[in-house]
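note to self — DONT lose this again. spent like an hour looking for the file last time. sequence + predicted structure for the chain T wanted, 480 res
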Amino acid sequence: MLSRSDMSGNFRNVAYLFRPICSLLIVMAFCSVATGQPSRPNIIFIMADDLGPEWIGCYGAEGIQTPNLDRMAAEGMRFTHAYSMPKCTPTRVALLTGTYPYRNGWVNHWDVPRWGARCHFDPGHYTTFAELLRAAGYRTAIAGKWQINDFRVQPNVLDKHGFDDWCVWTGYETGNPPSAERYWDPYIHTRDGSKTYPGRFGPDVYTDFLIEFLQREDDRPACLYFPMALPHTPFVTTPHDQGATGRLAKHMAMTRYIDHLVGRLLDSVASLESGRKTLVIFTTDNGSTGGLMNRMHGRQVTGGKGKISENGCRAPFIAWGPGLVPVGRVNDTLTDFTDVLPTFAELAGADLPDGLVLDGRSIAPVLVGQAERGPRQWIMAMGGGVARLTQDNRVVPARPFADRVIRDRRYKLWVVDRQPARLYDLQQDPAETRNLIDSTDPQVLEAKQRLAAVAESFPDQDAAPRYDPTPAQAWDRKPR
């Protein structure tokens, strides 16, 4: 008799048997009538750093204007049920690899340039969406924040991760004070090395680079990954709000500047000479910084970065693409960041390597209007805090089995200390104030049993990061 996890795997294997046919149909949808040649779309993935939906107008945010993000939603598709992971590193590795933290090992945050300890996101052990799209003929680039390799040790590692070009903040490098700056006078790593850009505002440098890359050699499709630095602390002024003072005012100024940069990128798409369709996605890596509060749909929401409550892992997710994405749709498809890799691969017609294990499911048919909903029945978020360093200097998860949350379109189960501990009806209780775990209501019981069965299918112990240690450095240290 097959176990629940075996059944789940078999269903997924069956689904992937049909994937080449689905990919062909989607690529055919981009074919030029005049030439009959495939015109695969450009893909621009923009990810803010620490920004919950309570700060975005089209999600019901009050007291702040985000006209370009609202335009994206009005002219494209806004998702209501999207999850990131609750912390930086787990989110980034999940979206790059299409796997959950319990599988890829990056359950907790690990700031490689700051802490080192010979740990790194190892291209020899992980496959990224950039690698797959480059192999499929895409030009690939990244700008913004990386932080999971140390460029002093691995100056060209982004090439090995699949990027043709890059313009990234290095992350704070222990022992190198200028590298702390990602905003004013930023310290940025390119193919020419790392240096300070005096008098420049980092997010402008990153955006200029991406626009130039997109417009250069427009004969081939491009995939741009823009993990923004904004609006992560330290809160600063921006070129548009030089007089902003105080924590909240600066955060709001930085959020408005995100919207400004999104507008620049949208305008750049319109200027492409090839007329190639372009998909732009906007999202965030986790909830807003703790202590920040804003009203959304009439209720107060506090920043939940690092938490598995909705304010920590529910992400804004907006797709825009003239002639590609249906206009003015609000979609309740369940999607989380493990879906990014298979979605991009299907849009690009990229082959998946034999033996590549994925947790994500493609939502490409939803994005291009060929399906109303994606294939998922549940999504998950997990991870947070800082990883642990063992006595033999290996980075491992802080706990053998991290707490996690699993939700469907209505109910959300918290799994704490390996056990179902909380259950919320998000339709009636979006702030998660009434725990229904002991409810005898038949509908609630059915939801609890269904989501608990998903939790039981996970391995008993989370994996550790896979990496071949880099050479020891003088700045290696334990996190504080």
